[in-house]
Every structure is written in C-alpha cells, then in structure tokens.
Amino acid sequence: MKQELDELLCKKYPKMMVNRNKPMMETCMCWGFECGDGWFNILDQLMGNIQHHIDWKEKQRTSAMAYNLMAAQAKEGNFDLFDDSMKDLNNPEYKAKRLSEVIAGDFRSVPESISQVTLDQIKEKFGTLRFYYTGGDDIIDGMVRMAESMSGVTCEECSAPAQTHGPGWIRTICEPCEIKREEERKAYHDELEQKRLLKEGFEE
C-alpha cells in the first residue's frame, strides 16, 4: 500500500495502530499494510466500524455505571447526583415523576468492556485480505470476516469488482489490471532479454 494511504490509516485510527513503528522482533506491523491500494476502502471502513463499536460500548458502559450510582444513592435518600443530572431542566413535575421512577425502577445492565483492538499484521494471502489483531469481541470478529470476504470480490489494485484467480500467484484482480500487469511483466522480461543479448554480443 502507498505510504500516504498507510499514514492516513495511522492518523485516523491511532489506538489501533500502536504497533505500526515497533521493531520487527515485536510485531509484523512494522512492515505496514502488505496489500494493494485497492483494499484501502475496505480497511478504512472496517477499522472505522471497529473503533466506533468499541467507543460506543464504552460510552454505554460509562453511562450505565453513572446511572446506577445515581439510582443507588436516590434509593437511599441521597438525591445529589439526581439533582445534578436534572439541573438544566425547569420542570418540577417531570423531575418528581422521574425521581419516583428511578427509586422504584431497576438498575441498568452494564455492558462488558471491550478490549481495544490493536493490529498485529495486515496482508494479502491466497488472494484475499488477512486481518490479524488483538482484542475485540465476537461482533468485531464478524466484521473482520465480512471485510476479508469482501476483499475476495474487490480488485486489490483499483477497488473495481473482481474475482480471485490463479494459477501460480493467486490474486483478486480485475481484467484491466491483470492485462496491465501482464504487459508490465512482459516488458520487464523483454528488457532482461535485451540486456542478456547485448552482454553476449560484447563478450563475443
């Protein structure tokens, strides 16, 4: 992947990219994103959804814990936290009704904290994306599986619809990019052959 795209993902998702510049003895992320530019959008959407899921769950957890603390105090006759939560509301009747609901109601369920996802290695393997990471939960695992499957129908070079094919080096690449790659490969081999012939001519 181009350096500017690599840097953009690092800038947008710093919590996930803590391993990016660590030495190779510690992480494979030192090599960056080992895939083509065509999968940038897949990675961008995946990483954005992962971080949003983690942050949203943490926000829900914090809110539930704060509510339960306020409710526990209200049930014991201490209304300081309740009054603080209602300080911007000028409706005594609603506040009284809400207080009775808090006192009579149940505590809120507190979601489990999701450990922050950090990337271990991102690469192409057998024509599709491989997204190795630490942390997360089952929902994030599903996101990753979906993204990896989408890479199997997305050109790794240009993001156009494509198919995974071989033989030899298995890649997911569209027909125009495949033609371009074959032309570049042929030009490279023709150049090597020309250099070989010139070298043999000089030696004679």
Descriptive tags:
single chain, 204 residues, three-stranded mixed β-sheet, two-stranded antiparallel sheet
Description:
- This protein has one domain.
- The protein has 204 residues and is mainly α.
- The strands form two sheets. A three-stranded mixed sheet has the order 1-2-3. The chain has a two-stranded antiparallel sheet with strand order 4-5.
The rounded Rg comes to 28 Å
Largest sheet: 3 strands, mixed
The low-pLDDT segments are: none
- Order of strands, widest sheet: 1-2-3
Q: What is the average of the pLDDT values?
A: 93
What distance separates the N and C termini? 44 Å
Order of helices and strands: HEHHHEEHEEH
Q: Please state the structural category.
A: mainly alpha
Helices and strands in order:
Elements: H1 3-12, E1 33-34, H2 40-75, H3 80-85, H4 92-104, E2 118-125, E3 128-134, H5 138-151, E4 163-165, E5 171-173, H6 175-203
Parallel strand pairs: 1-2
Antiparallel strand pairs: 2-3, 4-5
Helix pairs in contact: 2-4, 2-5
Summarize the structure.
53% of the residues lie in helices and 11% in strands.
